Amino acid sequence: MAEITAAKVKELRERTGSGMMDCKKALAETNGDMEKAIDYLREKGLAKAAKKAERTASDGRIFQYIHSNFKVGTLLELDSETDFVARTDEFNELGHELCMQIAAANPLYLKPEDVPADVLDREREVYRQQIMEEESQKDEKKRRPAQVIEKIIDGKVAKYYTTSCLLEQEYIRDGDKKVKDLVTELIAKLGENIVVKRFARFAIGE
């Protein structure tokens, strides 16, 4: 059995637009053969999701969720291409799951591109100061070079996205999936573009 490396999974994701777990499965099913894995995903319809994501989604629905203690609530706009898809059980289930995700994980932004530049700069500076403080405690010969420190900061920023951006968050019911993977999988299944447009979270005392 060929080893399924993270690099292979990443390459397959980039080439097909499919979800991480789908790419892992495709590579496992095809003994790590990249071209056969692509064919596998095409047969399943998952590779088409990336193309569908380019199409305009001008229909959809507004979803809401109020927690049982009535202290946390969410609103979500989930868009589709047609009202037909917006009325399907799968679409409505996704809307409900996303509302639950927002209530539980409290994202601040929809996607990394939405994080304001000043917020990102502030985060990077905090990480830099933390690392420099650590470095100052080391012997000079053991201190890491500047380019290594910058890579560490980049990694911390990427981690920040996974907590602050809804689409980059781990799905609360399955830590092996990101929220954006749920959307991609449904695009592949229903054959229409689906877009998480915007959301709001309300909490008593916050």
Q: Look at the helices and sheets and give the structural class.
A: alpha+beta
How much is the average pLDDT?
88
Topology, number of strands? 5
C-alpha end-to-end distance? 51 Å
Largest sheet: 3 strands, antiparallel
Tell me the strand percentage band: 15-25%
Order of helices and strands: HHHHEEHHHHEEHE
Spatial strand arrangement across the major sheet: 1-2-5
Shape: flat
Poorly predicted regions are none
Compute the number of helices: 9
How much is the radius of gyration in Å? 20 Å
Helix content: 40-55%
Describe this entry's structure for a reader.
By secondary structure, this protein is of the alpha+beta class. It is 52% helix and 17% strand. It has helices spanning 6-16, 20-29, 34-44, 49-52, 83-86, 89-105, 117-136, 146-164, 179-190, and strands spanning 59-66, 72-80, 170-171, 174-178, 194-203. The strands form two sheets. The protein has a three-stranded antiparallel sheet with strand order 1-2-5. A two-stranded antiparallel sheet has the order 3-4. Strand 1 and strand 2 (72-80) form a beta hairpin. Helix 1 crosses helix 3, helix 2 (20-29) packs across helix 3 (34-44) and helix 7 crosses helix 8. The longest helix is centred in the middle third of the chain and has 20 residues, at 117-136. The termini are far apart.
Short précis:
With 206 residues, this protein is α+β, with helices and mostly antiparallel strands. The protein has helices at residues 6-16, 20-29, 34-44, 49-52, 83-86, 89-105, 117-136, 146-164, 179-190; strands spanning 59-66, 72-80, 170-171, 174-178, 194-203.
